[in-house]
Amino acid sequence: MWNGIFKVLVIFMVFISFVQSNDKTFKNCNSTLTFDDGPHPETTPILLEQLKEKNVKNAIFFLIGDRIAQYPELVKKIQSYQYDIGYHSMHHTNQAKMTANEIHQDIQEFKNNLNQALESNYDLKYARPPFGGMTQKSVKLFKELETTGKLKQQTLNDEFNTQLIARQVRETYQANGLQTLLWNVDFKDWEQRIDMNHAREQFVPNLKQIWLFHEMPSYKGTIFNNQITEDLPQFLNFLCEQY
Questions:
Q1: Does the structure show a pLDDT above 60 at 1?
Q2: Rounded mean pLDDT of 113-137?
Q3: Is residue 175 part of a domain?
Q4: How many CB atoms within 10 Å of residue 155?
Q5: Residue 174 maps to which CATH number?
Q6: Spatial distance between the Cα atoms of 235 and 223, rounded to a whole number of angstroms
Q7: Beta bridge mates, 165
């Protein structure tokens, strides 16, 4: 009899532990979660609910201008959840190959689309150039920072951006009042599942890390193996345990 009671108690404690581990929410979290390439009806609404459930405060959705025009109701939904919206270009073009004037025109068109979608003038603060706005030379440097483990602990300031981002991109963003944000960790989740072992290896305590995710099931006819809505909850649980 006592063995039976003991087994029930063990099962009950395991269940309580499981519920508590999944009921954790963010407190004093230094990390910022960023989502590129949206909005998209298959991902954006689900991601917003997942972030809200865990009380995530620091999240930025870096949107594509032509998607804003296509899904204005999703843009309004992001704003209603009180998350920031960032500039990620009109058509996901490599701006390292564009002129300053072309980039400026792209920003203005993006702002117009965004303001029309929200039916108000949005205070756009953040920008992330497609492909990081990097030159061929700086791409090699960036990959070296990734492979050596230096990127995960890098402070993403103006000095860092100067090393990597093409000059006309940086200067045009600055002239338009935009703060450029790259990232510390990229899961490359448009083509593979989020690896939690990789997340544990990349996490640096007490550092304001920027994590890069993508919400891109498809784009311009290309279908990607993007499972972000399935994989994000386990990452949020992991991150909650760190704070």
A1: no
A2: 96
A3: yes
A4: 9
A5: 3.20.20.370
A6: 24
A7: 134
- CA atoms of 216 and 64, how far apart (whole Å): 11
In a domain, 204, yes or no: yes
Tell me, what's the pLDDT at 192?
Answer: 84
Q: What residue numbers bound the domain in which 64 lies?
A: 29-241
Token pair 């963003």 is at which residue? 173
CA nearest neighbour of 182 among 111, 239, 133, 114: 133
pLDDT at 20: 43
What's the average model confidence in pLDDT over 163-181?
97
Quick one: pLDDT at residue 106? Answer: 98
Structurally, the chain folds into a number of domains equal to 1
CA distance 180 to 212: 14
On whether residue 224 sits in a domain, the answer given is yes
pLDDT in tens, 126-149: 999 999 999 989 999 999 999 999
Cα separation values, 183 from 17, 37, 46, 180, 192, Å: 33, 15, 23, 10, 18
In a domain, 89, yes or no: yes
- Asked whether the CA dihedral 57, 215, 132, 187 is positive or negative, the reply is positive
